[in-house]
Amino acid sequence: MSWGSLENFLAMGGYAFYVWGSYLVTLGLVIAEIVLLALRKRSALARLRLHGTAQGGR
Amino acid sequence: MNWFKYSSPQTFFPLAGKLALWFGVLAAIACTAGLYLGFFVAPTDAQQGEAYRIIFIHVPAAWMSMFLYLVMAFWAGLGLAFNTRLSGMMASAIAPTGALFTFIALWTGSLWGKPTWGTWWVWDARLTSELILLFLYFGFLALQAAIDDPRRADKAGAVLALVGVVNIPIIYFSVKWWNTLHQGASVSLTKAPTMAATMLTGMAVMAFGFWFYSIAASLMRARCIMLERERASDWAADYARGSA
Predict the structure, then answer these.
(1) Could you tell me which residues are beta bridge partners of residue B49?
(2) Distance CA B195, CA B203 (A)
(3) Chain A 9-38, CB below 8 Å of chain B: which residues?
(4) How far apart are CA B36 and CA B52, in angstroms?
(5) d(Cα B22, Cα B15) in Å, to the nearest integer?
């Protein structure tokens, strides 16, 4: 499959809105999930450290 | 190898971390290869033009939405039957990723349906049952979030998850049972696929990519849940201190 030019590739034969609307939303959601997981882990660890110091170093 | 060794959060936690990393790497490789096949190798569809390229995420996402529900219900059922701690955590860890893929399947289906069917949405059997799947995931998550005691939340969620399993064959066979708008399966176990080989390969590679991603994301979430629920334990405190 040869697109010829970047313009042709981005135009997706006139279906750019539908094709890129699908791919970009999917990509955005996947990135959001990964970021949320990283934040969740960070806050879980922060809570554990706080809990540890409250018990006197444990 | 003693598999029961990994049935406790303490021993499963480091293993899950390693597995999540490797499956994440595999997911990145498979998705890159799948997108390359989908955009640069697969030809233009004679009827749908370039709009058909949405199927490279739509079909794998729809497969994952059903498959993840079955895996979630499996873990939920195991937890209900044997009262194992880790099973409920796994079920809870899978649910948000399952909901994500269900939403992606509906969203991309809608964007595919507009140029090819002429409508964003129709109350077709396949679409309606997939929407019910999204509500089942939301119901599972909301029910678990509403119950403070994690063990009780697991049990209530497990019952909902198991009852909802009945929806999966309905989604899968909906295109056979009801003759509505959504087309029949292009890929099945009993017939030769009705699409070009390169299109099929691209879709299969993307499906593997989504599958590996789901494993990685679920394991990452399972690790968070373990740290949250086992916060009174020594191993969790030690890990938190070690990673400071």
Answers:
(1) B45
(2) 11
(3) 9, 12-15, 17-19, 21-23, 25-26, 29-30, 33-34, 37
(4) 15
(5) 11
Q: Which residues of chain B from 87 to 126 reach within 8 Å of chain A, CB to CB?
A: 96-97, 100, 103-104, 107-108, 111-112, 114-115
Nearest CA in chain B to A22: B108
**Which of A13-27, B54-68, B193-207 is predicted with the least confidence, judged by mean pLDDT?**
B193-207
By residue count, chain A amounts to 58
pTM: 0.92
Could you report the predicted ipTM of this complex, rounded to two decimals?
0.89
Sequence-separated (6 or more) residues with CB below 8 Å from residue B214: B64, B68, B94, B97, B98, B101
Summary mean pLDDT of chain B: 91
Distance CA(B131)–CA(B171), nearest Å, equals 10
* Domain residue spans of chain B: 11-184+195-242
